[in-house]
Design goal:
alpha+beta, 3 domains, two-stranded antiparallel sheet, 5 helices
C-alpha cells in the first residue's frame, strides 16, 4: 500500500512540475515575443511619417499645429507636408517662410555645402503652412522647423533666460544637433497621435517625420498621391499645387457635404409627408403634429446649410491662382547626418 501511495504522490508531483515548467516557458516566450513586437513596432514608427493628424508644437511660442495631410505625386518627384491650425494658434507665429530655418536629417541626401533645396512657407498671410521636399529619398526624413522671429509675447517665466538663442540665423552642426537631441515622440497607439515636441523651449522649434514610403501600412502614414507631376524641369508647379491641394480638395469636401445635406433633406421631407398623412386622417393626432413641427424646423436648418454650402462651392469654383499666394518662401534646408 505504501508503494501505491508513494507512486500516486510522485505522479501528482510530476504533473505539477510539468505544469509549472510549461507556465514558466510560456511566460518567458510571451515576454520575448512582446519585446520583439515592441521593438519592431518602434522601428516601423521611426521609419514612417508622423501620422496625419499629429500635433507639432513650437515650444516657446506655445503654438500647437497639426499635420493636416501629406502628399506626393505620381512620379514621386516631391514630398509635401501641409500644416495648419486654428487662427489663434497660427497668429502666434510669423507668416513669412523666410523667418524660419528648416533642418533635415536623412543620410541618403548628398550635398556639397550641407544644404538642400526645399520650399517652406505659408499660403498667403493666413493660410496653411507647407513644406515641399523635391526628389525625395525613400528613407524617412526628420524635419525641424525653427522659428527665428519670436512674436508671441507670453508670461511664461521659463522663457526669460532664452533671449540669447531665439535668433538662430546661421545654425551650426553643433547647435542643430542639440536641437535634434531634444526631439521626443510621445505616441499613443490607440489614437495614432504622434505628438512631436521640443522638451526645452530654448529654441522655438517643431519636429516631425516625413516619408514617401512609410514602413507602417496605414492611410494615417501614407502620402496622398496627386495626379501628374508637380516638379517640371526642376521647377515646382505652384499653380498645380494650389489647384490640386487647396482648391480641388476643398471643392471635393464641399460637394460631399452638399450631397449629404441633400440626402438629409430628402429624409426629412419623407418623414414630414408621413406625419402630414397621419394628420389628414386624424386631426387630433398631437404626436404627429408635434413631430411635423420639429421636422419643419429641421428642414429650415438644412435648407440654410445647403444654401450656404452652395455659395461656398461657387466661391471656390471661381477661385483663381495668384503668385502672391506663395511668396517669402524659405528655399534651403540645412542637412544633418545621423549620429548612429
Amino acid at each position: 500500500m505504501r508503494t501505491v501511495k508513494n507512486s500516486a504522490v510522485y505522479s501528482d508531483f510530476k504533473r505539477w512540475y510539468y505544469t509549472f515548467c510549461i507556465c514558466v516557458f510560456t511566460v518567458i516566450f510571451g515576454m520575448i515575443f512582446a519585446i520583439k513586437g515592441c521593438v519592431n513596432y518602434n522601428t516601423d514608427v521611426s521609419n514612417s511619417s508622423s501620422a496625419i493628424g499629429s500635433q507639432i508644437n513650437f515650444g516657446r511660442s506655445n503654438a500647437t499645429l497639426t499635420i493636416k495631410d501629406i502628399y506626393t505625386d505620381e512620379a514621386h518627384s516631391v514630398l509635401i507636408a501641409r500644416i495648419g491650425g486654428s487662427a489663434s494658434e497660427l497668429s502666434k507665429l510669423p507668416y513669412k517662410g523666410t523667418d524660419y530655418d528648416v533642418i533635415l536629417q536623412n543620410d541618403n541626401v548628398q550635398s556639397q555645402d550641407g544644404t538642400t533645396p526645399v520650399l517652406f512657407g505659408r499660403m498667403g498671410t493666413d493660410g496653411d503652412m507647407f513644406l515641399v521636399i523635391p526628389n525625395p529619398q525613400n528613407s524617412v526624413y526628420t524635419v525641424g522647423i525653427i522659428n527665428r522671429n519670436f512674436i508671441n509675447a507670453t508670461n511664461n517665466s521659463n522663457n526669460s533666460n532664452n533671449n540669447n538663442v531665439t535668433n538662430l540665423t546661421n545654425p551650426t552642426t553643433q547647435s542643430m544637433s542639440k536641437l535634434l537631441s531634444t526631439y521626443q515622440t510621445n505616441r499613443n497607439k490607440d489614437n495614432n497621435n504622434d505628438n512631436a515636441v521640443v522638451q526645452s523651449d530654448a529654441y522655438d522649434t517643431a519636429f516631425f517625420r516625413l516619408s514617401v514610403n512609410p514602413a507602417i501600412d496605414s492611410d494615417a502614414y501614407k502620402p496622398e498621391v496627386l495626379p501628374g507631376t508637380l516638379l517640371k524641369d526642376g521647377q515646382f508647379d505652384f499653380e498645380g499645387f494650389f489647384n490640386k491641394v487647396f482648391k480641388n480638395n476643398s471643392l471635393d469636401t464641399l460637394n460631399k457635404e452638399y450631397q449629404s445635406l441633400s440626402r438629409n433633406r430628402e429624409q426629412i421631407q419623407k418623414s414630414m409627408k408621413e406625419y402630414q398623412e397621419r394628420l389628414n386622417v386624424n386631426s387630433n393626432d398631437d404626436d404627429a403634429r408635434q413631430a411635423l413641427n420639429t421636422q419643419q424646423k429641421n428642414l429650415d436648418d438644412v435648407n440654410k446649410k445647403i444654401e450656404d454650402t452652395g455659395a461656398e462651392i461657387t466661391n471656390y469654383t471661381n477661385l483663381t491662382y495668384s503668385q502672391d499666394l506663395f511668396t517669402n518662401l524659405q528655399t534651403r534646408a540645412y542637412l544633418l547626418k545621423s549620429t548612429k
